[in-house]
Amino acid sequence: MTVKEVALGSALAVLFFAGYLGYNVLPFLFFGGLLYVLWFTVTNRNAGGTQVALTPTSKISDVDFEAIGGQEMAKNELREALDFMLNREAIKRLGIRPLKGILLHGPPGTGKTLLAKAAASYTRAVFLAASGSEFIEVYAGVGAQRVRQLFKRAKEMAKSEGTNHALIFIDELEILGGVRGKHSSHLEYDQTLNQLLVEMDGLTLDDDVQVMVLGATNRIDLLDPALLRPGRFDRVVNVELPDKEGRLRILQLHTRDKPLAEDVDLESLARDTFGFSGAHLENLTNEAAIMAMREGLDRIYQRHLVEAIDKVMMGEKLDRRPTPEELRRIAVHEAGHALVSEVLRPGSVSAVTITSRGSALGYVRNNPGDDRYLETRELLEEEICVLVAGSAAERRLYGSGSSGAASDLRAAVDRARKLVSAGMSELGVVDEEVVPPGLLHRTITGIISEQESRADAILAHASVALDHLVEVLVEKESLAGDKLRDLLRSQGVVT
């Protein structure tokens, strides 16, 4: 029995006896309970400060750079930076300051965590991973102490594993390393960031264990400038969405252990998945395998992978069934999009469907062809024309539009605004923020109205083909891009 237990039992016995004698013991119980709450709070605060909640995902990472596809530039830049860590004697002879931190910056799902694990494997370093949110507590000073203990644990683990390299990976760095002074309620965020800066400043080439910090963020604009100066995060490695060749490499990696049928064409899938991240592509191959399993098949066919693209982009098919009149209007709307898209950009449509998926009642999946990183005026105007073609088709056949065009019109306004901000409108080069709202509104609506007239002219010229396409969609609900082009050729709309 401990001294605390004896003291607590004695106090309770005295209070019970005093109550038995007729004394009012309620004030003593109140103050005793208050003291217990204060003792419990302080004890847990100290415990939270002395025990780090950060645990290593693995001591030595088994992920290598070859297992990561679509990020060749990022891998090469990261390997170059890590070579400084490996060639310790060479950089000491040349008087090179060691790199202390590398920041991985890019959209979610592009492989930043995998790159960090591969970096640990490349340097044979122990790997500790944490999220920026794990450092922040309600009690001031806890986060700073956790940072100190994290660096201490990294060095201890490296020695126990017989290596002199340790890599600390901090995901969501913007939470821990946000601009100081923005939190007015308390200084826990600032103290934690200050401690991280102190720990990184203390890393030297003469340390028994070389520690490198890898941070990951998709909001580099939120980081405190002190983190990005030389001597802290010396390198910023951009981890972008993969291009077509990168997507093909990722698809090959994620299908190497999956049985594929002879009709599978990964190159066409890579072409149709513009804007997909590595995580999206992994999910695509997994969903395709699930579809094959549902059908009791032992191989994955191209149709599974194509349908998986739609599922990843739009969501699962919905059970709701529009009325026949609504279904026909949806067919008119999507037929307008598909027809105008093929006239303006032949071969651009991968599929058109009136099957409800996610929040969309129907949709046209476009094939962008080559990846584009610049948008011309002509390209943006064509995109606006395709976006408004759905509502234009509805007005042509029904005399009015519907609420189904709301998202299309919002996207059209965004592209029209981009024309203005890029100096490609009739206003010329202007600062959008100082343009009078009325003038900006008239310019944007003028751009959209011009493209609505263009779409209406195309649909008027191909009115017979439009009617025929609507009938086919109502009957079949979905139409592949090749079948669509065959139909339009038979009607003399495209060559």
Detailed description of the structure:
It is a single chain. The chain has 4 domains: 3-50; 58-238, Rossmann fold; 244-314, Helicase, Ruva Protein, domain 3; 324-490, Peptidase M41 (Methane Monooxygenase Hydroxylase, Chain G, domain 1), CATH 1.20.58.760. Residues 42-53 have low confidence and may be disordered. The termini are far apart. It has helices at 3-20, 26-50, 72-86, 88-93, 112-123, 142-160, 173-176, 188-201, 225-228, 244-255, 266-272, 278-294, 302-314, 324-344, 377-398, 406-421, 437-461, 463-476, 481-490; strands spanning 58-60, 101-105, 126-131, 165-171, 210-217, 235-238, 349-353, 363-366, 478-480. By secondary structure, the protein is of the alpha/beta class. The protein contains 19 helices and 9 strands.
Topology:
Blueprint (H helix, E strand, L loop, with lengths): L2 H18 L5 H25 L7 E3 L11 H15 L1 H6 L7 E5 L6 H12 L2 E6 L10 H19 L4 E7 L1 H4 L11 H14 L8 E8 L7 H4 L6 E4 L5 H12 L10 H7 L5 H17 L7 H13 L9 H21 L4 E5 L9 E4 L10 H22 L7 H16 L15 H25 L1 H14 L1 E3 H10 L5
Parallel strand pairs: 2-5, 2-6, 3-4, 4-5
Antiparallel strand pairs: 1-3, 7-8, 7-9
Helix pairs in contact: 2-6, 3-5, 6-8, 10-11, 10-12, 12-13, 14-15, 14-18, 15-16, 15-17, 16-17
Task: Write a concise keyword list for the protein shown above.
495 residues; alpha/beta; Rossmann fold; Helicase, Ruva Protein, domain 3; 4 domains; six-stranded mixed β-sheet; three-stranded antiparallel β-sheet; 19 helices; 9 strands; 9% strand
